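In this section we walk through a basic example: taking a raw amino acid sequence and producing a predicted 3D structure, encoded as discrete structure tokens. The instruction is simple. Fold the sequence below.
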Amino acid sequence: MLDLIIKNGKVFIPEKGFLDLEVGIKDGKIVALENNLSDSKEVLDAAGNIVMPGVIDPHIHLGIFNDFAHECEHETRAALAGGVTTCGVFMGGDQSYLGQVGELIDVIEAKSSVDLFMHLAIFTEEQMSEMKSYYEKFGITSFKFYMAGVKGVFPNVSDGFIYEGFKKVAEFGDKAIACVHCEDQSLIDVAFDKVSAQTPEGTLVDWAKTGPDMAEEEAIIRACYLAEKAGNRLYIVHISTKDGADRLTKIKANEGARVFGETTSAYLTVNKHGEFGLKGKMLPPLRDKSDNDGLWDAVKNDTIDSLGTDNVSMTLEVKQEENGMLGAMPGYPILQTHFPAMINEGYHNRGIDIETIITKATINPAKIFGLYPQKGVIAVGSDADIVILDLDNSKTVESKNLFSYGDFSLFEGQTIKGWPTTVVKSGKIAFSNDEIMVEPGSGSFLKREL
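The resulting token sequence is shown next.
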């Protein structure tokens, strides 16, 4: 007997298209894709809606402004309600991770409502020497390097250091990947000093000037050159500018699929002129409408391969926008609105193919980060992480009704069209009728194989 049958929906299988099939689920896995399935404990009628793989957000942060366990519990429930069933968590610091990751995995298994995999930022020679151990002990195959740091938090690392790290990633083979924050530190430093001196009480428009567009574009050129020489696969996180995306288009014409580009739902859907003001302070900063347009073009032409959030949850008390441009903290909670906002802006407002958006939110990150075919696709043998998407489901965003512990949203008061009605996680109905149906700890930590 099956545990669950999903019927009457349009089943979207990335790279294959929309199919009239029923989905049979047992023991957390998809076991049948055919018609006229029967003999099941439960039946989910998806009539009129899209049946698609669970969204993978490959780029979130947990535990920056609050306890890791607290954020792991609350923010993964927000993710689940937005159709996100798997997340990649970036962790950083200047100490060895060998004594830390095991404890973090225990927290994930106890608190998370979605599946999580981990990327480790490499800042020190000790961490670099332990990269193989991070894989062997914890199944971590993706490592991050910062070409630009965050003032008062952590420094950037040199190109020489990055090149050595890239070579170690290359030694792991093509299932490992290096992630890079691409901004030139010196260009940012000069711009920050100038802006902070001239307009210390500035707006979000002024804040955007602290991260010049050319700083991102120039660093993309360098990162791709270093990866070409080292021979590793490269993932450029949170591309925020049209110039950066245009440059990557030119590079990918020569480098092909060994270089992958990510942007975030925020860089696609909001900009520095938003009514949210300094609540939108972020690194890299929100840009202009022309950058929104250029990034959507990059989604369409496959320069952008993957869609994330760079979620950094916090409350207004922590945000401190009352302290002005320099005093406000960077980051915002955005997990629950991530996928609906892209459907609203990309599909409804801009006419982007729904297939393109879903593909870059599911199967692409699964393949890039070594999770496919377990994740990112509806296929026999894959995990039964499935979203029932109603393209016409409209909701007005009110942060008090979101599952994040954060008390603000960049989309506050906006009506967004295209929300999940039901989310199936590991074969169980986990979200339905605006309610979370599973307990914290129903998610798992994902170890990856080389």
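Looking at the output, two observations stand out. The CA atoms of residues 141 and 241 lie 28 Å apart. The chain has one domain: 54-368. In the next section we compare this with other chains.
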